[in-house]
Design brief:
The chain is an alpha/beta fold. Helices cover 36% and strands 27% of the residues. It is built from 11 helices and 14 strands. It has helices at 46-53, 76-79, 97-106, 112-125, 141-153, 171-186, 198-204, 222-228, 244-251, 276-286, 301-316; strands spanning 8-17, 20-30, 35-39, 61-66, 69-70, 82-85, 159-163, 190-194, 207-212, 215-220, 234-239, 256-262, 265-270, 291-297. The strands form 3 sheets. Strands 6-7-8-3-9-10 form a 6-stranded mixed sheet, with helices on both faces. The chain has a 4-stranded antiparallel sheet with strand order 2-1-4-5, with helices on one face.
């Protein structure tokens, strides 16, 4: 079987603003059916990259292909396959919910009969049936975000770009939005997702690229990214009396990077290993050390993000 053509292929993309290199020889592939996380600090080049994909910005060097075809400013047929949900809510204040969704859908679907069905589906998809006669100023922040999504997906795009779609929404609306993204993906849409909420990215994304200074700093699945950095499992154990020889035996374990004893708690920072907790408890048990509460925390994507982007800052210091 021949390998599937990526939905998005970016090769050596460069975008400059005068002396500032906003995107610096970025390359990435996004496969059909992925929810692809594009992460980075503010100013890292994420939004510039997205705008180059959409051809809202011209780039200085490199190639962008969508669905196996070169993406150009006049690639209107390719653009019909894309839906965008921008970070800033982009709707018409003078139109109702239904009129807004219909207006955006009409950019892609001229047939009114078909469009009516698509608008009905989009409004139901984001749960705005009871509000379709409301104007945006009457909606809460969470409902306004849902309207923003409905406008971007009504024409049933194959590629959906979501730029921080859950900013400043309540937990209930956030969960509804995340559920909706999972449903869109299950129905076949490929999604590019940016967010500063790492728990959302861990939940949604099959693969992730972390950008900084316009470059890709690391790419992979969540587990692969966690394996790239020194931040590993954090083990905390409530202990009784613990002598120095036993503490040294814990420090000597293969995956233990540092150990601290404070206020009756043993804190061990470990690199990735399959049996870190069991190994530490084994040392304590063999020394006859009694223990109480035990907490094992695997590395989070937030740990990875901070180490990778922080490391970049240290390297340039």
């Amino acid at each position: 079987m021949e390998p599937q053509v990526p939905v998005v292929r970016i090769t050596n993309l460069v975008k400059r603003y005068g002396d500032l290199v906003a995107v610096d020889h970025l390359s990435l592939d996004i496969a059909q059916g992925e929810v692809f996380g594009l992460l980075g600090p503010n100013g890292s080049g994420k939004t510039t990259t997205i705008n180059c994909i959409l051809q809202l910005l011209t780039h200085d060097h490199g190639e962008i292909e969508l669905f196996g075809q070169p993406m150009r400013p006049t690639s209107y047929e390719l653009k019909r396959l894309i839906g965008t949900v921008p970070q800033e809510v982009a709707v018409f204040d003078e139109l109702t919910v239904r009129e807004n969704v219909d207006s955006f859908c009409a950019l892609y679907v001229p047939d009114r009969t078909r469009r009516r069905k698509l608008v009905d589906r989009a409004i139901a998809f984001v749960g705005l049936e009871k509000f379709e006669g409301f104007r945006p100023k009457k909606l809460s922040g969470g409902l306004l975000r849902r309207l923003n999504i409905a406008c971007g997906i009504a024409h049933q795009p194959k590629l959906i770009i979501m730029d921080e779609p859950t900013v400043a929404v309540d937990p209930q609306s956030r969960n509804a939005i995340l559920d909706g993204i999972e449903r869109l993906n299950a129905e076949g849409a490929t999604v590019i997702y940016t967010s500063h909420y790492m728990e959302e990215v861990e939940r949604l994304c099959s693969r992730i690229t972390i950008m900084d200074h316009g470059r890709s700093m690391a790419s992979g699945t969540t587990d692969e990214l966690k394996g790239m950095v020194g931040t590993g499992e954090k083990v905390s154990i409530e202990v009784g009396a613990l002598d120095e020889p036993t503490l040294e035996r814990v420090r000597a374990l293969p995956h233990v990077r540092s150990v601290e004893l404070a206020d009756g708690m043993l804190h061990a920072q470990c690199s990735t290993g399959a049996h870190n907790l069991a190994d530490i408890l084994g040392v304590l048990g063999s020394a006859g050390v009694s223990f109480g509460r035990v907490l094992s925390e695997p590395p989070t994507l937030n740990d990875v993000f901070l180490e990778i982007t922080g490391r970049q800052l240290r390297d340039e210091a």
